């Protein structure tokens, strides 16, 4: 697993990712007939990238500020700050989501309408809650490779 701050740093191979986002204000979202107001805070959205361009292409789409809404996550990326993504080549989005099992699900069905295993692929990341150790190691490794002037900006915590 690696943590990338931009899509350009992600591999162009298939895999899974957990997009790290920060909502600065509450946001109303819908999943079918269900809706919720997500509180301000940090979120992790687990997804997969199996198509052309792999992880790099999928993350580039998520990180683009202006795009046609297609997936549930597009509601969040339109109004959130993107902090980066945890990526795992050949990984499985449900396995990444399972690693976050202790984090709350803010809206059942969000990002998982095509998944029979997961209640949602969006997790609220409570302030101060530790990430799984492999994730934390990936994040710290990325920070150590940033130029000194950028190391303090865009940090997850």
TrEMBL record:
Pfam family, one: DUF123
Coiled-coil region: none
Residue ranges, annotated region (Disordered): 136-157
InterPro entries, per the entry: DUF123
Regions that span the bilayer: none
Protein name: GIY-YIG nuclease family protein
């Amino acid at each position: 697993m690696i943590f990338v701050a931009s899509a350009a740093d992600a591999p162009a191979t298939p895999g899974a990712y957990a997009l790290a986002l920060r909502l600065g204000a509450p946001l109303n979202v819908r999943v079918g007939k269900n809706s919720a107001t997500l509180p301000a805070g940090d979120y992790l959205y687990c997804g997969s990238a199996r198509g052309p361009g792999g992880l790099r292409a999928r993350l580039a789409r998520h990180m683009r500020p202006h795009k046609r809404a297609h997936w549930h996550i597009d509601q969040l990326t339109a109004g959130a700050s993107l902090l980066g993504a945890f990526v795992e080549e050949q990984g499985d989005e449900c396995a990444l989501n399972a690693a976050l099992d202790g984090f709350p699900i803010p809206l059942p069905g969000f990002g998982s309408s095509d998944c029979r295993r997961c209640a949602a692929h969006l997790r609220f990341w409570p302030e101060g809650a530790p990430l799984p150790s492999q994730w934390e190691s990936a994040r710290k490794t990325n920070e150590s490779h940033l130029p000194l002037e950028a190391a303090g900006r865009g940090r997850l915590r």
